[in-house]
Amino acid sequence: MKRWILLVAHAALMAMPGAVGARSDEDGSSVKNEIIALRFDWPAGTEILVESSKRRLRDMESRHSDITTTGEYTLRIEPAPDGLRIRHSEMRNVTVDGGDGGRAAEISGLMMQLGDISPDYVVSPRGELLRIEGMDEIASRMRAFFAPMLDSLASAEATARVGTLMESVLREEALFNKAAEIWNAMIWTWAGEQYELGAVYSMASEEPSPVMPSVTFPMVYEFGVLECASCADGADPRSCVRIELSSYIDPEQRDSVVAKLFELMGLEGDASTMGEFDFTNRVVLLTEPGTLLPHRFETTRSISSVVVEGGVEKMVHNLDETRLVFRYAAAGD
């Protein structure tokens, strides 16, 4: 398996060597299944309507925030000298639900919308992300996005902070890394690979903490093409395949992870002090195997812990969910 990149929402780009480890069928048997070959072949001229939904949950003692943003945008696939250019339109019909209606909730909603501003991608004929383009247009969109916020700020200090944030978001490296996280989890991880239908593959590696990058978590990864499925209502029941990838902290190394976290945070305690600690990621992809044109793409990242302090349990739970639905025009439309 090629060098591939796993999606960790809101984290830096994380690359991992892709040697496939053990595999087993879901019932533990060794029966050989049909081989599914996955190939990138997006046709130039295709236009895709993408419906986006993102949820951000933060739950910590008395503080609670649960915000969902929705919207839609269009992808246009055009030929490029070295492959394909994938153009992203502006987000339309944006809604923000949840929160307490206060300033903090408003800012959280704005930041989630900010994550949907995307440059154009240039990808190779094999499906590898080569570069991003359209930075001038992105800068223009960013300025329009931040204008209402800047107008509402009362102090020069606050205005300077927002300006610094805008500059950090506009860094080409940051935008490329963000694009690569999504693209690789949806396309490049799977392009050119073959899997036994229904088999679950596993491997182990280390992943940087999304909160404290200096801490790496020993993770177990499980992935595979789990079943054939219909791409849409009324479509051929084998027109798509469902691919799933999940990762979680290696249970045998959990205590050492907790000890390192406590040490870095300058806290006293051990694994018994932290009653629970869980960090999981999940990707679900419904895609056409012969082209890797996606129809549904879902990611979930969850971090939860229960710290026992003075005999009292304190729970922290962070959840990030993204759901993308891809609509294609019917032939002849």
Radius of gyration: 21 Å
Q: Structural class of the helix and strand makeup?
A: alpha+beta
Strand content: 35-45%
Main sheet specs: 13 strands, antiparallel
The DSSP helix count reads: 5
Overall structural domain count: 1
CATH A-level architecture: Roll
From the N-terminal CA to the C-terminal CA, the straight-line distance is 38 Å
Give the CATH level 1 class.
Mainly Beta
Chain-wise SSE layout:
Elements (H helix, E strand, L loop, with lengths): L3 E2 L9 E2 L6 E3 L9 E3 L9 E14 L2 E18 L2 E6 L3 E7 L4 H12 L5 E4 L5 E5 L1 H18 L3 H14 L2 H17 L5 E3 L2 E10 L7 E14 L10 E10 L4 H11 L9 E14 L6 E16 L2 E17 L5
Antiparallel strand pairs: 1-2, 3-12, 4-11, 5-6, 5-17, 6-7, 6-8, 7-9, 9-10, 12-13, 13-14, 14-15, 15-16, 16-17
Helix pairs in contact: 2-3
Short structural summary:
The chain has 333 residues and is α+β, with helices and mostly antiparallel strands. The protein is built from five helices and 17 strands.
